[in-house]
Amino acid sequence: MARAREEGETTVVEVIGAGTVGRATGIVLEEWGNDVVFKDVDEHVRTSLRKEGYRAEPPSEAVEADLSLVCVPTPSGRDNNLSTDHVESAVQTLAEQDPGVLAIRSTVPPGTTERLADMHGIEDYAVIPEFLFEDTALDDLRRCDLMILGSGSAEATETVKRTFKPDITGFIELQPVEAEMIKLVTNSFSATKISFANEMWRIADSISGADPDTVLSAFRRISPWMGPEMGLEGGWAYGGHCLPKDTKGFKRWAETRVEIPTPQLRGTIRENSLMKESDGVPEAPEASPSRSVKSDN
Questions:
Q1: Are 37 and 60 in contact (CB under 8 A)?
Q2: Tell me, what DSSP letter sits at residue 104?
Q3: What does the pLDDT look like over 94-125, one tens digit per residue?
């Protein structure tokens, strides 16, 4: 339940989990004028934070906070699922302490935050995913001016904005499940970009006279598809003359002529086939649906 605040009163934020994300978030929020309390199960972490001048408590210590930020890890389980055990434990402990607004900053499967809020009777909750690099987390957040905010209530929206403003000037407001999804989409896209570049690098490296670094450097500079929104609308297959024939032809050439495996190209072609099937378009080399992304070059 959100607590009543006096006009001009400093926002109190508790950060549960003082790893890379929690530590950076708490430090920067205090720099931005909030009253921050770190919580962590590790006594060594708490001692280190206290030596640096921050307040640090165990998770069992109740704090009358306006905003409770859950920043605990979600490691891979044995079956490669994201383990939400730490998040669930943190939310259960907070629920027993009657939190103000609960905000999940940990990376969780879509639907997790709403499920836990319903389970524990928490009315005001939000998802505010982070997009920080481990080595530069503090500076990344200090430079940040746009935030994803998936909110379950008006009170949660107002509290998160009050906490991060005026330094964060823009908020993309979504449903909590959409905010959870965006973090996973972002990380999956980043991994896909790297894997695609590596596949192209391996092919170029196998060709006599081709420098793979030069090929990728030139590609980054000249390709119209490197624009921030090109090809990222989603919901339809690519078509036209060149994209279908060139992806299939390049895959075939790489696998048969230079004997380089092409899992990325195979996945690209397969995904396009699945999208055509879901769109009711028959999979055929000459198919060029009206809703396709077309290229005639």
A1: no
A2: E
A3: 999 999 999 999 999 999 999 999 999 999 99
Report how far residue 107's alpha carbon sits from residue 186's, in angstroms, rounded to the nearest whole number.
11
Residues 6+ apart with CB under 8 A from 163: 11, 13, 29, 34, 66, 67
CA-based nearest residue to 105, from 73, 69, 157, 153:
69
Local confidence band at 276 (pLDDT 50, 70, 90 cut-offs):
confident
What is the CATH architecture of 12-179?
3-Layer(aba) Sandwich (3.40)
Quick one: average pLDDT of 75-99?
92
Q: How confident is the model at residue 47 (pLDDT cuts 50, 70, 90)?
A: very high
Between CA 18 and CA 70 the distance in angstroms is: 10
Return the structure tokens found at 269.
Answer: 């072609």
In whole angstroms, give the CA distance from residue 195 to residue 263: 9
Cα gap 286→15, rounded to integer Å? 56
User: What is the fold of 186-295?
Assistant: N-(1-d-carboxylethyl)-l-norvaline Dehydrogenase; domain 2 (1.10.1040)
> Can you give the pLDDT at residue 1?
56
